[in-house]
Task: structure prediction
Amino acid sequence: MSPISRLIAAALVPALTVTPIAARAQTAAAPANDALKAEAAAGVEAQAKLVQEMVDSVFSFAEPGFQEFQTMEYLTGILAKNGFTITKGVAGIPTAWTATWGSGGPLIALGSDVDGLLGLSQMPGSPTLKPIVEGAPGHGEGHNSGMPLVIAAAIAAKQVMQKHKIPGRLMLWPGVAEELLATKAYYVREGLFKDVDACIFTHVSSDFGTGWGNMGNNALVSAEYSFKGKTAHSAGQPWEGRSALDAVELMDIAWNMRREHLPVTQRSHYVITEGGGQPNIVPDKATVWYYFRDQDFASVRKMYETGTEISKAAAMGTGTTVEHRLLGYAAPNFGNKPLAEAAWANIKAVGMPSWSADDQAFAKAVQTSNGRTPKPLSTEVLPLSTPDTRERSLGGGSDDIGDIMWTVPTITVRFPSNIPSLIGHNVLSAIAMATPIAHKGAVSGAKAVSMTVIDLMTSPQLVSEAKTFFTDVQLKDQKYDPVVTAADKPAIHLNQAVMERMRPALKPYYYDPKKHKSYLDQLGVSYPGAVGGQ
Result:
């Protein structure tokens, strides 16, 4: 029996009595908290069916950034039924919301991302690639699992707090448009975390762990450059035209030459989102969308400034004009040490999910069917990730949780709802995200988060130590320095046209938990497909 199983068993003994926490002082991870944390974990286990329904439902909505309307209504409806106060449209973002509950004590924020990715529609439970709706968005990162985890954890923690009269407040919030790195800086700017004492963020993974210190994620600036020229007949009077597309191409060429001389930690990439209508008309409008990434505030700001200088030079060289617009921002990630240590102790107590033979067979079928290196579902939690145990980062991905990390003490808990050896931002990463693997991983993650919430609510020392680390260590050499200004606005127009076109085709595939025990059942998918067929 695992440590958490023993704790849950003890917590469920009717004769067990627990002194109200408000009546006595607590220290971080004090043994006296074990029974309360076991109750919270048991409260999560009791919600396993709800977790499955939430994970499957959000997967079926398949909504990309800024278009998470169905997801918002569904999740906030569940929270409202469980006594949370809902505020929608926060920070000027229609699909953003908060759900609050409690009084007195510390204010603990819990969040996770909710958006899908364009063009990654995939039939869950199918080891081979098969879209639900051709060309539609899908959860190829697994963001459908995070808020269900957070909601189950919050409800379980709330139940324990009510039963034992523990003061404290919870604030749940969704990571809207994280794939666009486009909202959390605005949450911070608008003061959503002004009074928050600590924040626990969760992110889907194939492993289970957390860490502290500089996590190696790159800071990011997302910017759009729009050029304007003059149309003309491309063959008859080309001298009368000024090609905006030429300006975009010149900017791209110049940037590619410049980045040869940038540090190895930088990453940058772009797509041309508008380039003209037909070849025999000189394009008078063209747009290119850039992501600039590097490891710290100053470096990514400099990249953005350099890109903007190059855009102006490209406009001058082609006789066009240019305007630029900020579409998103993400600060580098930095985890809080006391919070990470407390959460990791709970992760270790919970342990990995009990994977079935079918789970392992399905994971192997997905890997071998798609040319990936076979690797079984992990059975061991990760060690605590620290600056001493991590390899030096030479650049990579970004996550705008960094903006919150530089505002209040924050950690990311990675939970095991996906399969190892897959490709991120790819249909492969959607295959398992409405299967028992996703459900079990979210339940395990919710247990660890709920237990950490109880630690924070019952240990003033832990909250104090987290704040001290934040101010004395994290902010010692760097301060939050975003490029977002008071004039910048969230890019809520993004993906609107896509969903206006795709939503009618997706609606018939929304999961109906009243009629079907799971989304796989609704879709007629046998699990595991590699063994049972489809």
Q: What stands out?
A: Residues 436-458 form the longest helix (23 residues). The chain has a mean pLDDT of 93. The chain is about 40% helix and 15% strand. The two ends are 36 Å apart (CA to CA).
